Each structure stands twice: as structure tokens, then as C-alpha cells.
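Weekend entry, working from home. Most of the wet-lab plans are on hold until the incubator is repaired, so I used the time to fold the two sequences that have been sitting in the queue since the last round of cloning. Logging both here for the record. First:
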Amino acid sequence: MYAIVEIAGHQYKVRKDQHIYVNRLQGKEGDAVSFDRVLLTDDNGSVEVGAPVIKGTQVDAKIVSHLKADKEIVFKKKRRKGYAVKNGHRQAISLIEITGIGAGSAKKAAPAKKQEAPAKKEEAPKAEAGTESKELSAMTVAELKEMAKAKGITGYSSMKKDELIKALS
């Protein structure tokens, strides 16, 4: 059985008792961790694909050690300019051992609290009997000009933008 799981922003194909190197994880050596972003599982030909993840499935692992990866060398050079810079770094990584794959008590993220929609304001009095059912986007230019003239709007420069939108709605 194997699974494809997202760990620290990267996707890995994992099997039980496998050791893999991942970006540094929070926790101490020996701590148990679980990953609930399982994208695919394959159990002897029985493939289950998530959309985007498989709910209720998790991969359990144990942090074996924290260490640094091999040195990455960054060399920059501009020809004929006398510019050459050599830098490098060692990425912080963790070695983990996969202890189990399957259904479990995956920690579910708390659902985001929905903000209640603000109470509707009282509707503005309707302008004319003929235009009350039409939306502004469905009106022609001539109808909009006529409506603006009826409301006393002589031109855009005579009103502020907010007042114009308020008057037309």
C-alpha cells in the first residue's frame, strides 16, 4: 500500500516503514506527527483519488531526527565585469519514518466562522414605474440618459461619483 501525501508544501509518495527527508517540521525528535492532506491511496490495485484530498484518511509518521541537507552553492558571475560572488546554504530538514497509512482520527481544522451578512438597508424609493424592474446593466444608453434627466442630473461633472451611483440605483 502506498499514498501520495502533501507534507510541508511538497508531495511525496510514501509507504509504511519508509524513511524520507522533508522540510523541517515542528516538534522534537521522537514526536509522532500525522498528515491529513492525502491526495491518493493505492491498496493493491484499489486506487482512491481525492478531490482534492481524501477525507478521513491520514498518514502517521514519527520524527527520527532534525538535520541539515548538503550544502547548496550559489555562484553568480558577470563576464568581463570583474563580478563574481560565491555563496551557499544548508537547508534545514527532518528525517521522518512513516508508521501507518489509512483511516484514522485525522485532526480536522476548525471550520471558519461565517460572518453574518449585514442587515439589508431599506430599499430606496423606486424611480419610475417603467424602470423599476430593469437593472442598470440591462438598460440602453438612451434609457439611462432619460433616467438621469428625470432625476435632475445634468452631467457627470455636476455630481460626485458616489452621489451618481446612489442616484441611479
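Second, folded right after the first finished:
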Amino acid sequence: MMKKSFKYALFFAMGVAMAGGATSCDDDDDDDKNDDDSASIIEKIDAEDDLEYDNTNQKNWNAYMKVVANYLKVDATNLYNDWAESYEGGEAYSVVFANAGKSGYTSTFSSALAATEQIVDGCSDIANEVGEAKIGDPLNLWVSGKYAEALYAVESWYSWHSRVDYSNNIESVKNAYYGSLDGKVAENSISAQIAKIDADLDKEVKASIKNAIDKILAIPQPFRNHIASSEAKSAQDACADLKDLLDKSLRPALSRLSESTCEKINENYVKNVVLPTYKDLKAANEELYTNVVLFADNSSVTFETLCENWIKCRTYWEKSEAFLFGPVSDMGIDPNMDSWPLDQNAIREILVKGDFSGLDWNGEFDEENENIAAAQSIRGFHTLEYLIYKAGKPRVSHVSK
């Protein structure tokens, strides 16, 4: 269900300078081959990122941050409203999903079981994406000798937040399976109901989720400096194992659950996982926008504050990626908020000209539409990340008073 663009070769050919960081961190004192081979490449890329927030671009920079933060706020609000209030002029998507298979409700799911299967499919999709794309794409490029392209392929590397983003993606799987956000298994969850018919499978799924999270966080920080590390490969394998378990064991086991049981699972899932996650995402993006406006108005808000707000938003967003179906997919909200990679040449041009018209698009979403994709590549979380982070830290203002 992913709508993001991973056109790394094109991105590399554009000669775009990506913001990065130093060749080592305080906890990056291991001496694996990845460090030795990538140090000069990272140093070159870091040196090319010479854009600073200063008097020459302050006005356009502030305006750009406000436009992007506003789009994020609007998208997060629309996403929550689609699920909680009304979707496409009808019932809220939460109502449609929770009542799948019942007469009187129009749904793309023919039964409650089909909706429960979608929950597991969403978990499988994000486990696969983390392993095969977010970790696997950079790793495969590195192994093939395309070192710079591998670095460009690492998502969330302006902030050095890659590993946490990826682990939060698997946390979203945990939340969906547990039917809660507090780490406890809800009574009407997939986990609780599977445990009744196959306790060993339930334990295996829980262990596999934990293993994937642990293996991701075991990658030395930052991931971009350790793309070809043994830990990265182990994390990729752990995500693949989780996907296989979800597809080959858990999903088939769902057929042993009754329709009434699936109805309860779906209702609990909507009420205690999806809606509160999207509600928190909406509130966090509202706070982020408010502080971006205050920053632009020369208040006491700093880049550090904006980075803290950004991380909060990212946490809720990444923990929602196990349910990238429905409005978030159909309306193009996923790539609106989270497209990667960016068109950094276009971003720099916007900072010079102050023309933000290219960020908007209208009409029905089509993931193959190049004009829509172009708009989405200069907005969203990662554009704001670029504007507020540098070298894994909050940017420093060079504006003279």
C-alpha cells in the first residue's frame, strides 16, 4: 500500500547534496569495514551541504516552513476526520471498517474476517517495507558498490532518526496485533483471540515482533554510517522473518475465528489503536505548526523546539504505518506527508524564489501522476526535516540581529 517514491538512481543522478553529519558519533566507535569505506564519501556529501539559515534566505525559509507545516497539519486533520467523522461524505471510515460484512454498511471488505485480514496485511506490508526498502535498498546498493547512492537511499538521515523511525514502524505492528497502545494485550485483540486457538503461534508472533525491534535498534547509530554492518543485515532478516510469519502462519489462522470474534477485534482495533494514534498525530502537527509560526515571528521558539515537535509527529506517524490503507492511501495522504527521497534541487530553488505554488495539487489522487509526485517531493515531514536539521542536530541560525 505504500505510495512513496524510492527512485534512488534518479535522485543520485540529479547531483543533489544531502544533509548528513559527521563520520562518527559518540557511540560509533566500532571499526567495521563500512566506516572505513564510507568515511570519504560521507565527508564529501557533508561538505557539499553548504546551505545555512541566514539573512539572505530567512524570509523565504520561514515562509517555506510555515507552508509545509500547514500542509502537514491539514493532512493530519483530514486523516483523523476521515476515520472519526465522515469519509467521502458518508459514514466515518472507522464505522465502515468496524461494521464490515454487516447489512446496511458499504465497505470494500466483504466480511468481518476480511477486515481482520487487512489488519494483518497492513502489518505484513510495513514489516516488508522496513526490511526490503528502508534497510534493504541502501544495503543492496552498498553491496553492489554504489556507495554514494546507498547513502542517498537512507530515509530520515537529516535528523539521524532512521533507526527509531524503523523501530516505530514495527511498534505499529505490535500495537495492531496487541490491540492497544500501552504494550498490553487487549481482550478483543488478534493476539488474545489467536492465543485461545494456538498459544504457540501467539508466542511466536510476539517474539518475532520483539526480535525485529531489538535487531533494528542494535544497528549502530547512525544507520547511514553502518549500512553494510552485520547488525543491519540481521535487522533486515528479522523483518523478513516477521513478514513470513504473518503471511504464512498468522493470516491463515484467522480463518479459524468466528465472524463475531472478528467483529470485536475490528471494533477494538479502530477504537483503541487507529483513532487514538491519528488523534495524537493531529494534535502533534497542530503544535508543530503553531511553533513554526512563532519561530517565524522571531519569538523564543528555536530550531531545537521545532526538532522536538518534529520527532513527536514522526513517532505518531511511524506508529501508524501498519494501517496504511483506506483514506491515507486512497487520498494520497501518505506520500503527501512522507515522500522520500526529496527533490532537493527544487527545495533550494524555492528557498531562493519564494514560490510555493508547486507544493499543491488538486483532483483525484493517482500515484502514477508525475505532477502530483513532484509536488509531494517538496513537502511533507522530510522537507521540514531538511529545513530544521543539519548533521543530525537542530540547525544553527546565522541570522544577524
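Plan for Monday: verify the second prediction. The chain has 17 helices and four strands.
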